[in-house]
């Protein structure tokens, strides 16, 4: 398979149809630190697919961010490839958007340094994720502290106007905006300041075993609360059937008092294309019946994705070619911003 043949005249900087409003540029990234879950699908991948034809889009496997905590090089490489393949399997089209492995574009780390020279230590130590994962521990990697400068670089390099992320990233996005404004004020107008407003997430898929926390790819591999996109159907079914429900028997949509059941209804609603979860509750007389229906619905979503994944995985050259092309376009798109930032700051 070849991608280039399908787009004969596209050059790196002009491949996006010029009839699109030049004002919308979307960037988002997924850290390859775990096997992607149903939460990543509804929180990120599906949304990426939905917007890829509406704006200039750059979707990145942000592997540099995976170095901020202890990691295994081989596993990182494997997960990076798996995430890239899942981007394609979920429906991202390399002719419509840029799919890029972050480490393929040196401009990310170059701009990150300029932004480390813009951000204050006080701002970095205030970040919730740093406080939770690293503060006060001598063996915390320095990159965990500076992570938000790299994330800001990811976003600002492409002139992004929108950054679809989960609400756990709001603080990082606010910092990105502040850094862009500070840099512009101090050195001259270089960066587009991204919007905050469009970053709000839809209902979040929560863990099946702990329905008060989000379903995270970083949960232990063997966690029964996490549905991985590449879990075989029987595993999906087993996990759903074992999901924690709540005291009582009634199927009601009550996030506060019945978080387990509400989560199942949220998942069912998402799988059915975003129907109203509360409205679905009335259709079930028992938790068992609801679970069977949820299991079927999830399997119906992941099965076709897994089929495409298997096809893509059988032709690793295609994924590699996608990333090569993505890197080329991303480098071209990022270059002017990096050059302007360097010139403005005095380099
Ligand atoms: N920090 C994000 C997360 O943990 C991942 C990420 C890195 C990102 N760089 C980004 C998201 C830029 C959006 C834009 O989920």
Molecular structure report:
It is a single chain. The chain is globular and about 70 Å long. Helices cover 49% and strands 5% of the residues. It folds into 2 domains: 21-199 and 316-345, Rossmann fold; 206-314, Tyrosyl-Transfer RNA Synthetase (Orthogonal Bundle). The protein is built from 12 helices and 3 strands. Helix 6 crosses helix 7 (170-187), helix 8 (233-241) runs antiparallel to helix 11 and helix 9 crosses helix 11 (287-313). It is mostly helical and 347 residues long. Strand 2 (56-61), helix 2 (73-89) and strand 3 form a beta-alpha-beta unit. Strands 1-2-3 form a 3-stranded parallel sheet. The structure holds tryptophan. Tryptophan (TRP) binds at residues 27-29, 31, 62, 65, 151, 154-155, 163, 165, 169, 172.
**Gross morphology:** globular
Task: Supply the number of helical segments.
Answer: 12
> Which stretches of 5+ consecutive residues score pLDDT under 50?
4-21
CATH superfamily of the largest domain: HUPs
Q: Kindly state the mean pLDDT as a whole number?
A: 91
Approximately what portion of the residues adopt beta-strand conformation? under 5%
Descriptive key words:
347 residues; 2 domains; single chain; mainly alpha; binds tryptophan; Rossmann fold; 12 helices; 49% helix; Tyrosyl-Transfer RNA Synthetase; 3 strands
Give the topology.
Elements: E1 25-30, H1 38-51, E2 56-61, H2 73-89, E3 98-101, H3 107-116, H4 121-125, H5 128-133, H6 142-157, H7 170-187, H8 233-241, H9 259-271, H10 277-280, H11 287-313, H12 316-345
Parallel strand pairs: 1-2, 2-3
Helix pairs in contact: 2-11, 3-6, 3-12, 6-7, 8-11, 9-11
Bound molecules: tryptophan (TRP).
Tryptophan (TRP) binds next to strand 1 and helix 6.
């Amino acid at each position: 398979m070849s991608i280039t043949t399908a787009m004969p005249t596209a050059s790196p900087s002009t491949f996006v149809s010029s009839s699109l409003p030049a004002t919308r540029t979307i960037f988002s990234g997924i850290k390859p630190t775990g096997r992607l879950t149903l939460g990543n699908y509804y929180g990120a991948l599906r949304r990426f697919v939905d917007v890829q034809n509406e704006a200039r889009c750059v979707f990145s496997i942000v592997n540099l961010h995976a170095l901020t905590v202890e990691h295994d090089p081989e596993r990182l490489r494997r997960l990076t490839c798996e995430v890239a393949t899942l981007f394609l399997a979920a429906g991202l089209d390399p002719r419509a958007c840029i799919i890029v492995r972050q480490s393929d574009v040196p401009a990310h780390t170059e701009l990150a340094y300029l932004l480390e020279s813009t951000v204050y230590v006080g701002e970095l130590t205030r970040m919730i994720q740093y406080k939770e994962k690293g503060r006060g521990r001598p063996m915390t990697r320095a990159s965990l502290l500076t992570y938000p400068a790299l994330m800001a670089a990811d976003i600002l390099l492409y002139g992004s106007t929108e950054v679809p992320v989960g609400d756990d990233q709001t603080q990082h996005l606010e910092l990105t905006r502040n850094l862009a404004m500070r840099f512009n004020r101090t050195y001259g107008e270089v960066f587009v300041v991204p919007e905050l407003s469009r970053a709000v997430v839809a209902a979040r898929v929560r863990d099946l075993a702990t329905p008060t926390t989000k379903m995270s790819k970083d949960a232990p591999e063997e966690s029964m609360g996490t549905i991985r996109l590449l879990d075989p159907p029987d595993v999906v079914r087993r996990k759903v059937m074992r999901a924690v429900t709540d005291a009582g028997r009634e199927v009601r949509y009550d996030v506060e008092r019945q978080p387990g059941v509400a989560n199942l209804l949220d998942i069912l609603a998402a799988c059915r294309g975003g129907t109203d979860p509360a409205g679905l509750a009335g259709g079930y007389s028992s938790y068992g019946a609801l679970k069977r229906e949820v299991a079927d619905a999830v399997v119906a979503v992941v099965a076709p994705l897994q089929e495409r994944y298997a096809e893509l995985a059988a032709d690793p050259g295609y994924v590699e070619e996608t990333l090569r092309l993505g890197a080329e376009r991303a480098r071209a798109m990022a270059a002017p911003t990096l050059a302007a930032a360097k010139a403005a700051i005095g380099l």
